[in-house]
């Protein structure tokens, strides 16, 4: 048995070996073991040996981590420079290594402290960008402009929808699209959702699908590869099962299995899986050809639930006649009952699939292999149109730029020449595609050639499978090395973070939570013990706080009370509340707000969960659709109007056919309201009217913001963060509106859900997810909501998992999702789902370990379990099977029982449904905009306001309305809110322009004349080189500003601010007039003179706002004339 002294010796030897820069290592560093400092020490040691710092690359996975490592290296160098010698042993080692690095820096004149950018400490994404920029594609793909989540969501959706256009073509893409659409029962939403999910994970499958253009022979070859992978997966599982059987005292089982098979044949019982065992002389070979024999063994030994049988009967081949054989079988089953691993393996056999695809399965797969690259093609087209990208695209092109391991490109050879030492932090979280890039960078490296690898990670903290990180790869690297380099495994043991009692608790609990042995194929990692440091002796405590019943409000109140208690008792300490998912937090956050407990939350609140946004969303929905009754009722219920339930009921009673706005015009209905309700409607009706008036020359964001102000929206904002949240909402609305409306309010709400809000309070209380807590530490940790379930993963049209392999060949088990009426009967799909669930289960154990090991002084576990009445007794249920609490349940159920015996229960504990009666909030007094200080006066040039009569100027109503609409369409062109130019000109402009004109409802307008004028203006600016220059690049469109001109408050809207390549800011005013006469120059000169004073005003206000000097111009799209105007 390994004791603490042995572990300490192992730890000290590992830390010493890690600084031998001539050798390559993979370091397993458990939580709190100081792995970052060890990596820094290795980096400093390398600096003292290389010819230039660029020969070393240190890679981590977040910008924050990269910045922290670089800062700590710089601090170490500065500490040595100023002779600030530390006392701690580990810090002293860093100090000495920094001294050696500085001597090397001085010798070669690196000047590292003043030139830190020479140290290549970066994220994997930054490395990919630098490699991708060598690609020919980089000349027209902007790798520096990575689209944000909301924009990406729109691009993925547009790309998915664009694939439907291929249905009208006559080629293989039309067949593929039709096949998949038929496969999902012609449900276009499901089809689109599936493709969006696949585009979000395309780095995981594009490498084995490729371009999608396959010949018949190529498709057959691919089929053989995937069927070979299936066979390998089945064989691997059978081999593990055979090893476990042979390791146990089960040799007598063979004769009993043969006996059972013979009896099934003799009794003529229809069960071929067991009858096939008749006459066997040994356990079957671990080969897919013997799969049915293995399934027969599993059926004899296990129940349908996967538990070892307690008895056997004639259905398993043991009739009542032969007691001896039956007793021998029961004795073996009794021994097996404690062999959990064997039970899991045998149960896994029952779901092993056939190793051949059916023709129907392969038809769908073949269609997917053609359709998915088409979706990627459409996405890349959109990326080029929008001049954006995403990190997946960057990684894919980085990999292409490096070529293949057998045929590296010049870029790969260049990197191979430049890089001598590669350090990777958090290696266990590296995705398979990232592994492949690292392998390409190290192609050609050999053992003892002067180049080294140094990988640091902890498989027990591998929690990013959703990013395609497979912990099995880490385990295989430990065993087989990386690329061509053999790696020695070093295991750190000391925990510098947590108190002794906490470390001992981890060592007691987690061996029972983690699998007993490592298994790369299942993502199974066994637990490795840590030892506390002497400084933390006797410190640390773990407490369990049991919640009984399903009532989330009770749980939130108790959570809030516990938080208060911890903060009050530890006045100088930090507390972190960690949850599995954000969905477990809304009630707790409400309790904290109600109790005035400030907290710092990192991307926890969804924008749509905040009270100030909920009201705004109702206002937006009401503006978009007059018939949205729920939105209008929500608007009337909001604090700025505040109708009570009785008034709302009176308003809508027996009036299903009318809109709420129509009911607000009904005097009888209004008179039926309470006096407070009548007064509220009377006060706000004029503001609500703005939502239904024709307004197509005004943007939706501008309208919603204006009505929100008029109703008194700012009065509900409690702090600066609420103000920031509101304007973040307005920004999202502005980015999603199209031509003054929203095409799909549901899609808009989905995009809003992607917006996560952080609060930046300097608070001792921090709240975050367990995933986000990784790499951090806190004095006290509360794990909240452990008894709750988490959301299920979404199904994808293509399901797969990776077979970890030491070979440089990507191996996947893959299957299409079956048709909706048959998906649960597809054995390959079911096998994939079961395997993924097993991997997820193992990862949940690691997530729990990460969360627990953040604690330095105390760990608090709070979770609920159900209760039920059994006659006269109240009993508690075990922890839910889909919760994190169930992983701890065997160790903490006794504590739950103790707390249960000391508890009193109310009926709320049994209440599965919580009815919340919303509180009516209403302004006590009508809100008005507060008075503000006078705005700073802006001085303007003393220039007369020239308004000469223009003999060429005439504007009729048709021309004026057309001009307004042209401005609107130019804004859409600048903001690129369209899928394609062809679609815009042929469909969108005629259709939407006509709709706007119909809504304006001016009888004498010539609609066709206006539409043609708008189309001509749009075509003209798009076909004009100067027009294209105006529309593209940085700047602003329809920019609204305020200022003081000659002691008067002025509001302006600048058509376009264009920031050119030299950084010059151009104010451009569109002029949609035409000129049919001969003297065009005189006409333009007159126009310039006419608008000079207006441009002078724009210049003054914009310069004060931006601090930039500007140039001004008029642009005449219908004349294709761009004229600079001096101001």
Describe it for me?
The longest helix has 32 residues, at 216-247. The protein is built from 40 helices and 26 strands. The chain has 1127 residues and is α/β, with parallel strands linked by helices. Strand 23 and strand 24 (1065-1070) form a beta hairpin. Mean pLDDT is 87; it is low at 937-955. Helix 6 packs across helix 16, helix 24 (611-624) packs across helix 30 (700-711) and helix 36 runs parallel beside helix 38 (1007-1022). A 6-stranded parallel β-sheet has the order 3-2-4-5-1-6, sandwiched between helices. Strands 9-18-15-10-14-11 form a 6-stranded parallel β-sheet, with helices on both faces. A 6-stranded mixed β-sheet has the order 21-22-23-24-25-26, with helices on both faces.
Notable characteristics:
48% helix; alpha/beta; 26 strands; six-stranded parallel β-sheet; 1127 residues
C-alpha Rg (nearest Å): 35 Å
Q: How would you characterize the largest beta sheet?
A: 6 strands, parallel
Distance between the termini: 88 Å
Mean pLDDT: 87
Q: Enumerate the spans where pLDDT stays under 50 for 5 or more consecutive residues.
A: 937-955
Decide which structural class fits the backbone. alpha/beta
How large is the share of residues in beta strands?
A: 5-15%
Summarize the entry for a quick read.
The protein has 1127 residues and is of the alpha/beta class. The chain contains 40 helices and 26 strands.
């Amino acid at each position: 048995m390994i004791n603490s002294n042995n572990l300490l010796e192992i730890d000290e030897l590992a830390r010493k070996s890690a600084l031998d820069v001539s050798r390559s290592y993979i370091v397993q560093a458990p939580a709190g073991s100081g792995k970052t400092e060890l990596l820094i020490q290795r980096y400093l040691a390398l600096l003292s040996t290389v010819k230039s710092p660029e020969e070393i690359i240190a890679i981590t996975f977040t910008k924050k981590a990269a910045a922290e490592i670089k800062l700590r290296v710089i601090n170490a160098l500065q500490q040595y420079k100023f002779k600030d010698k530390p006392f701690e042993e580990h810090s002293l080692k860093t100090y000495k290594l920094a001294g050696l690095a500085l001597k090397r820096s001085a010798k070669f004149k690196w000047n590292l402290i003043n030139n830190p950018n020479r140290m290549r400490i970066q994220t994997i994404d930054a490395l990919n960008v630098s490699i991708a920029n060598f690609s020919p594609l980089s000349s027209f793909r902007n790798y520096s402009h990575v689209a944000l989540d909301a924009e990406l969501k729109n691009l993925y959706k547009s790309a998915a929808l664009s694939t439907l256009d291929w249905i009208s073509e006559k080629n293989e893409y039309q067949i593929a699209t039709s096949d998949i659409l038929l496969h999902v029962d012609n449900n276009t939403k499901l089809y689109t959702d599936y493709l969006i999910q696949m585009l979000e994970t395309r780095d995981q499958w594009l490498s084995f699908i490729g371009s999608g253009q396959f010949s018949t022979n190529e498709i057959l070859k691919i089929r053989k590869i995937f069927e070979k992978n299936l066979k390998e997966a089945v064989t691997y599982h059978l081999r593990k099962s055979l090893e476990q059987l042979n390791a146990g005292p089960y040799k007598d089982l063979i004769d009993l299995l043969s006996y059972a098979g013979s009896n099934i044949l003799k009794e003529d019982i229809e069960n071929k899986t067991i009858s096939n065992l008749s006459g066997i002389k040994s356990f079957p070979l671990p080969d897919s050809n013997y799969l049915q024999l293995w399934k027969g063994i599993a059926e004899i030994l296990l129940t349908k639930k996967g538990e070892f049988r307690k008895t056997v009967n004639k259905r398993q081949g043991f009739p009542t006649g032969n007691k001896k054989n039956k007793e021998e079988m029961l004795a073996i089953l009794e021994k097996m009952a404690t062999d959990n691993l064997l039970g899991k393996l045998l149960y896994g056999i029952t779901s092993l699939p056939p190793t051949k695809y059916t023709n129907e399965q392969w038809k769908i797969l073949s269609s997917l292999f053609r359709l998915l690259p088409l979706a990627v093609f459409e996405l890349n087209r959109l990326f080029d149109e929008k001049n954006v990208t995403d990190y997946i695209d960057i990684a894919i092109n980085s990999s292409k730029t490096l070529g293949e391991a057998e045929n590296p490109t010049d870029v790969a050879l260049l990197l191979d020449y430049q890089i001598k030492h590669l350090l990777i932090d958090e290696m266990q979280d590296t995705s398979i595609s990232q592994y492949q890039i690292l392998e390409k960078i190290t192609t050609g490296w050999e053992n003892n050639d002067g180049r080294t690898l140094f990988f640091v990670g902890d498989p027990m903290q591998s929690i990013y499978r959703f990013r395609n990180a497979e912990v099995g790869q880490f385990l295989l690297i430990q065993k087989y090395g990386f690329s061509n380099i053999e790696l020695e495994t070093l295991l750190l043991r000391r925990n510098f973070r947590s108190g002794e009692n906490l470390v001992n608790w981890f060592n007691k609990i987690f061996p029972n939570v983690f699998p007993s042995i490592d298994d790369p194929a299942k993502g199974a990692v066994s637990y490795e013990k840590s030892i506390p440091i002497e400084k933390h002796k006797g410190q640390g405590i773990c407490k369990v706080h049991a919640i009984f019943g399903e009532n989330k409000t009770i749980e939130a109140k108790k959570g809030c009370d516990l938080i208060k208690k911890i903060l009050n008792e530890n006045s100088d300490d930090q507390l972190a509340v960690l949850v599995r998912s954000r969905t477990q937090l809304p009630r707790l956050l409400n309790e904290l707000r109600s109790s005035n407990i400030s907290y710092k939350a990192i991307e926890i609140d969804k924008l749509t969960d905040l009270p100030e946004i909920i009201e705004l969303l109702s206002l937006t929905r009401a503006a978009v659709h007059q018939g949205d009754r729920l939105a209008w009722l929500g608007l009337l219920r909001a604090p700025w109007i505040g109708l009570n339930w009785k008034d709302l009921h009176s308003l809508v009673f027996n009036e299903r056919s009318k809109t709420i706005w129509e009911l607000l015009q009904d005097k009888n209905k209004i008179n039926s309201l309470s006096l407070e309700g009548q007064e509220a409607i009377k006060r706000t009706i004029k503001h609500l009217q703005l939502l239904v008036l024709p307004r197509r020359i005004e943007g939706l964001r501008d309208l919603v913001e204006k009505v929100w102000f008029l109703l008194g929206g700012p009065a509900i904002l409690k702090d600066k963060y609420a103000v920031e949240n509101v304007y973040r909402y307005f920004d999202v609305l502005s980015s999603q509106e199209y031509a003054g409306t929203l095409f799909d309010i549901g899609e808009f709400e989905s995009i809003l859900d992607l917006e996560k809000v952080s609060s930046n309070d300097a608070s001792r209380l921090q709240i975050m997810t367990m995933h986000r807590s990784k790499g951090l530490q806190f004095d006290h940790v509360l794990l909240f909501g452990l008894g709750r379930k988490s959301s299920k993963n979404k199904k994808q049209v293509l399901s797969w998992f990776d077979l970890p392999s030491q070979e440089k060949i990507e191996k996947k088990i893959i299957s299409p999702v079956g048709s909706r009426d048959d998906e649960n009967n597809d054995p390959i799909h079911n096998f994939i789902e079961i395997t993924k669930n097993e991997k997820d289960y193992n990862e949940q154990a690691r997530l729990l370990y990460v969360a627990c090991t953040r604690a330095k002084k105390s760990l608090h576990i709070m979770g609920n379990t159900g209760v039920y009445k059994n006659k006269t007794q109240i009993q508690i249920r075990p922890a839910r099977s889909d919760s994190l609490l169930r992983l701890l349940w065997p160790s903490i159920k006794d504590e739950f029982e103790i707390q249960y015996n000391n508890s009193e229960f109310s009926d709320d504990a049994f209440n599965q449904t919580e009815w919340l009666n919303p509180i009516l909030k209403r302004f006590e007094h009508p809100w008005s905009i507060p008075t503000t200080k006078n705005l700073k006066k802006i001085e303007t040039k003393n220039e007369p306001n020239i308004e000469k009569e223009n003999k060429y100027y005439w504007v009729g109503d048709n021309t004026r309305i057309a001009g307004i609409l042209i401005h609107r369409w130019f804004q859409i062109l600048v903001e690129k809110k369209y899928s394609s130019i062809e679609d815009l000109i042929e469909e969108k402009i005629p259709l939407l322009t006509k709709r706007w004109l119909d809504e304006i409802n001016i009888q004498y307008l010539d609609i066709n004349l206006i539409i043609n004028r708008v189309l001509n203006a749009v075509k003209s600016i798009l076909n004009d080189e100067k027009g294209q220059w105006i529309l593209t690049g940085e700047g602003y469109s329809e920019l609204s500003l305020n200022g003081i001109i000659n002691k008067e408050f002025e509001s302006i809207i600048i058509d376009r601010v264009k920031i050119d390549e030299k950084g010059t800011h151009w104010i451009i005013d569109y002029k949609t007039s035409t000129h049919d006469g001969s003297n065009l120059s005189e006409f333009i000169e007159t126009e310039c003179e006419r608008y000079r004073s207006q441009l002078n005003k724009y210049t003054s206000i914009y310069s004060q706002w931006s601090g930039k000097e500007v140039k001004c111009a008029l642009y005449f799209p219908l004349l294709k004339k761009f004229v600079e105007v001096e101001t």
